[in-house]
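Below is a concrete protein record.
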Amino acid sequence: MLPTQQGSFRLFRLFGIDVHLHWSWLIVAMYSVSTRVGNYASPLWALLEYLTLFLVVTLHEFGHALACRQVGGSAKQIVLWPLGGVAYVAPPSRPGATLWSIAAGPLVNVALIPVLAGLFWGVAVTGLADGHQDAHRFMRAITWMNLSLLIFNLLPVYPLDGGQILRSLLWYPLGRARSLLVATGIGLAGGVGIVGLAVWWQSWWIGIMAFFLLSGCWSSFKQAQGLRRLEQLPRRPEFRCPECHAAPPIGSYWLCPACRGAFDPFATSAVCPHCRTALDLTTCPDCGSTRPQRSWDGSIVDA
């Protein structure tokens, strides 16, 4: 249950990536600013604080998107909403590529720590804080917000960055499906713990966050079960996906784009037996990449 382009509007486009803002962000922004106004002599600082937090989250998401592109993946959209941001990235189906795409987001927050700490220290030692208490409070708030975002995102609760980093590391010894099963299992337990924390602290905000985390984790857990069943199917070792190098399963697991009939393109030379439509591209059920079927046997090499 993540935000999509539906219900959001485009703010700008940078590096070929569209940044959208969900409408609910505006409502939460007004509420959040109103709760922070009392910390400053001027309410403008409360607004600036929230806008700076918005900038930090945007930089975090661009870290994901640009890193994904660096390893050959696709990243075209970022959606910002009250619970943070979501970069819609599709890295190559390899643990290293996925790990870098996910880890780059928190690394942006790590890079911001000395920058913000230096500005906070500069405001203090130059005496600016003496005559501008709002500036000092602002820098302290932003410094702690960035650090809090980093710590929270690194919790090993799927689908937080920490949970996805854990899954990527487990991918090496366990494989794609089992690593996701383990990571989402830990994530479900962690999500229940966050629910308990929300009840203990009587925080509806943490409760909402826990609900979305558990929903996303449960969806990924079911996906992992499907991947596990897919891995156990009999395979055709004479063919290999050009992207993930997995052998295709034996059986009618592909749909003809013309008649929607199920068939096995590797048994029919990519021609639908129902309507005789030739399949130009074949999708790998393991990684989702789409390539000409002739490239699966190594006769051509895709760029």
Summary: The first strand starts at residue 8 and ends at 14. The helical segments are 24-36, 43-70, 95-125, 128-131, 133-153, 161-174, 176-201, 204-231. DSSP finds eight helices and eight strands in the chain.
